[in-house]
Amino acid sequence: MPNRLIRRMRVFMRQRFGVVPLRQSLPDVEAWLETPLGQALLEQERMLLEPELQDLFGYHLLQMSVDPALDLTRGSRITHRFTLAPTTATQGALSPLVAEFHSLPLSAESLDLVLLHHLQDYSQTPHQLLREVARVLIPRGHLVIVGFNPWSLLGIGRWVARCFSDSPRWRHQSLRLGRVLDWLQLLDLELVKVNHGFYRPPIQRPGALRHLHWLERWGKKLPMFPGGVYIIVARKDLGAPIPLKPSWESVKTAPGLEGVKSIRKEQKACKSSQ
Question: Which domain holds residue 109?
Fold first, then answer.
């Protein structure tokens, strides 16, 4: 009886609070980004992304966002920039590639830069998503991740809203920064930089959001005050091969060099006796 009750509780929690498939959650998340709070968040994220993207070079840039119509790559100097969309109805500044997020129709080691914008927050398998992104990155290529910080005013507000609404916009992963960094390390992605932003509370009044903009400045100065979003810059580093020192004693001597080998042994014996 207790085991059956536990199973029922798990099923209820998964159905009520579990992350829904991306195709179902993306339209609702796109609508939330159009709200005053969503627009303020996007404005702050663009300000944080622009200086990071300016310093990353290459030939091909892929943006993977919860809103494929967005263009968050304006600060990049890479000319070929495109986005990924699950349907052909997407219209935006970037050319869309229609494909599934967890199975990219791209060759391995073909992209110089990938921007992952909150997609891992709404993915049912975020680790698999990161693995696929790492596959298509070239060696020394970069991955930029924008994610929600669950330990912030924005993160707490989203958890409170989750208790009162079953809307897909609130049914997201709770990915701590440390957890994402551990995944990146397992995928041979070396951390380059971490930045934080959006220190304002999750309110929908445009006037109040503008009035509280000073919190962004003070949030940077107070390390104990966590931001609502984090931005991770990581680089794909493949371990260099370790050269093996040859064992010359076990190498078969080439014809005509037998005398050289015996002379070397005699020289070593003389040095040791001295």
Answer: 21-236
Number of domain units in the chain: 1
User: CA-to-CA distance for 6 and 11, rounded, in angstroms?
Assistant: 9
What CATH code is carried by the domain that includes residue 192? Answer: 3.40.50.150
Which burial class, exposed, middle or buried, applies to 187 when counting CB atoms under 10 A from its CB (0-12, 13-18, 19+)? Answer: middle
Cβ-contact 54, 75 below 8 angstroms: yes
- What pTM value is reported for the model? 0.82
Q: Tens-of-pLDDT digits for all 274 residues of the chain?
A: 567 766 666 655 565 567 888 888 899 999 999 999 999 999 999 999 999 999 999 999 999 999 989 999 988 999 999 998 887 666 777 888 888 888 899 999 999 999 999 999 999 999 999 999 999 999 999 999 999 999 999 989 888 888 888 888 888 888 999 999 999 999 999 999 999 999 999 999 999 999 999 999 888 887 767 899 999 999 998 754 455 555 545 445 545 545 544 545 555 555 555 5
Classify residue 252: in a domain, yes or no. Answer: no
